[in-house]
Write a structure and sequence with these properties.
six-stranded mixed beta sheet, about 400 residues, binds adenosine-5'-triphosphate, Rossmann fold, alpha/beta, 15 strands, binds magnesium ion, VC0802-like, about 40% helix
C-alpha cells in the first residue's frame, strides 16, 4: 500500500484553549525535526484542527512511522490515502481499493465515518457514509456493518481533497517538547536516569544533561555508554547538551577527608551543586534525577532530604514511587535497557562504604561537610572550568 499522507491525532493538546496554537505549532516543529532524519520529501501542516504529514515521491514507510512514534504529543499516526475530488464514483472506488489493500482478511464489522469539511460538497457527511458503506458491502460480502461497536472505523474526510484512513498506530502521547521549559538531567550510565529523562521530556520539557565521571577510575567506555544513552533519550527529547564533569579530584578529596559512611551522601550533594550550576548556565528551571524512595541507601527519605537541601531549583524525580521492575519495563520499551546494563563502572561505585548511613541527619552532614571547606571550592571551580560539553542529537 502506498500512503502519501499521515493524519496525526493528538490528545491532550486539544484541550489547551487559547494556547492551543502554541502546542500545535510545537507539535508541527517536532514532527518536522523528527522527519528531517528520514529520507523523503515530507511536508507538515496544520489543517482545520488537524496535523497532516504529506509526502511526495518515495520514502521508507517504517522509518517514517518510527520517527513519528518518537514525537511526544502524538496520540495516533494514521496512514492515509489522499485522492483528488473527481466525483463520488471515484471516491467510493478509492475507498474500496484502500480497504482491499489495507485488510487482507475482510471478515470484520465496520462503520464508515464521513466528514464533510468542504461544505460545497454535494452530499452530507451522513450521505457520504451511507453510500460508501453500500459500495464496500457490494465489493466485500464478508464485511458487515455495525454502527455501534465496529471492529474497524473507515474514515472518509472530504476537504479540497479526500482523505481515507482507518488504521491508527499508537503514538507516544504526552506533550510536544518545547512547550514546558528546560531541565537538567543527572544522567548516569544506569537504568533509572535515562527513564527519568524520557518521562520528564514526555511532559514537553527540553533537556540538558550532566554526567560525572572519575577518570582513570572510570573508563572511556563508561563515558561512551552515557553518550549513547543520551542519544537514545534525545530520539524523544530532541538534542541534549551533555556536560561531562571530571569528578575525580572532588571524590578523592571527600574520600580522604570525610567519614566513609557519609561519603556517598556528601558526594551526591556535590553532584547536585555542580549540576545546578550548569543548569542555571543553560537556562534550566529544574533538575531531574532517577531516584526512587528506598532503592539504595542514598535514596531513603532522609538521604533525599540531605541531597535536596543543597539545591535552590526544584528537583524532579519522576520515578520516586516506582518499583525497579516498572522502571526496567519502561527502559525496555524506550530501548535504553540493553545499553544501561553494559557492565562499565560508575563513579558512585568506585569509593563506596560497606555500611553507608541510611538515615543521615541534615545538620550532621552539613557540619561534617565543613571539614572540606578550604579546598573544595577550588576543586569545584576546576571541575566547572574543565567541563566538556557534547551536543548529542
Ligand atoms: P541510575 O540507574 O540512574 O544510575 P541508580 O539506581 O544507580 O540510578 P544512584 O547511583 O544512587 O542510583 O543515583 C541516583 C541518581 O543520581 C541517578 O538516577 C542519577 O540521576 C544521578 N546520578 C548518579 N550517578 C551519577 C553520575 N555518575 N552522573 C550523573 N548523575 C548521576
Ligand atoms: Mg547509578
Amino acid at each position: 500500500m502506498n500512503y502519501q499522507a499521515f493524519l496525526i491525532k493528538y490528545s491532550e493538546i486539544g484541550v489547551k484553549g487559547k494556547n492551543r496554537y502554541v502546542f500545535e505549532d510545537a507539535l508541527v516543529r517536532q514532527i518536522k525535526f523528527a522527519l528531517a532524519k528520514v529520507e523523503g520529501d515530507f511536508k507538515v501542516e496544520k489543517q482545520s484542527g488537524r496535523v497532516f504529514v504529506t509526502v511526495d515521491g518515495d520514502y521508507d514507510f517504517d522509518e517514517a512511522v518510527d520517527a513519528l512514534k518518537h514525537v511526544f504529543g502524538i496520540s495516533a499516526i494514521c496512514p492515509t490515502v489522499v485522492v483528488d475530488d473527481t466525483g463520488f464514483d471515484d471516491m467510493a472506488q478509492a475507498v474500496v481499493d484502500y480497504v482491499d489493500g489495507e485488510f487482507e482478511d475482510k471478515n470484520f464489522s465496520f462503520k464508515v465515518f464521513g466528514k464533510r469539511a468542504n461544505k460545497n460538497y454535494p452530499m452530507t457527511s451522513m450521505e457520504v457514509a451511507a453510500a460508501v458503506g453500500e459500495r464496500l458491502l457490494a465489493a466485500f460480502p464478508e464485511m458487515r456493518v455495525d454502527v455501534h461497536h465496529p471492529d474497524k472505523m473507515i474514515n472518509v474526510e472530504v476537504r479540497e481533497k479526500i482523505s481515507i484512513y482507518s488504521t491508527e498506530i499508537p503514538g507516544p502521547h504526552g506533550m510536544p517538547v518545547g512547550t514546558a521549559g528546560k531541565a537538567m538531567l543527572l544522567l548516569s550510565g544506569g537504568i533509572d536516569s535515562p527513564v527519568a529523562g524520557y518521562m520528564i521530556s514526555k511532559r514537553g520539557v527540553n533537556l540538558s544533561a550532566t554526567y560525572f565521571h572519575a577518570p582513570p577510575y572510570t573508563s572511556e567506555q563508561a563515558k561512551q555508554k552515557v553518550v549513547d544513552l543520551a542519544a537514545l533519550v534525545a530520539k524523544y527529547s530532541g538534542p541534549i547538551d551533555l556536560h561531562i564533569v571530571n569528578f575525580t579530584d572532588i571524590q578523592m578529596y571527600i574520600y580522604q577527608t570525610c567519614a566513609h559512611e557519609e561519603l556517598t551522601i556528601i558526594m551526591r550533594r556535590y553532584m547536585m551543586r555542580l549540576a545546578e550550576h550548569f543548569a542555571k548556565e543553560d537556562g534550566c528551571i529544574g533538575l531531574v534525577t532517577g531516584e526512587s524512595i528506598g532503592q539504595v541507601a542514598s535514596q531513603t527519605m532522609q538521604s533525599l532530604n540531605c541531597t535536596n537541601a543543597v539545591c535552590s531549583l526544584p528537583v524532579y524525580r519522576p520515578l520516586i514511587a516506582f518499583d525497579k521492575q516498572d522502571i526496567v519495563d519502561i527502559s525496555e520499551k524506550i530501548d535504553t535497557y540493553e545499553t544501561s546494563i553494559l557492565p562499565y563502572e560508575d563513579c558512585c561505585t568506585i569509593f563506596v562504604a560497606k555500611h553507608p548511613v541510611t538515615k543521615p541527619k541534615l545538620e550532621v552532614i552539613e557540619k561534617h561537610e565543613h571539614l572540606l571547606d578550604e579546598k573544595i571550592d577550588q576543586l569545584m571551580q576546576e571541575a566547572i572550568d574543565s567541563v566538556e560539553v557534547i551536543h548529542v542529537k
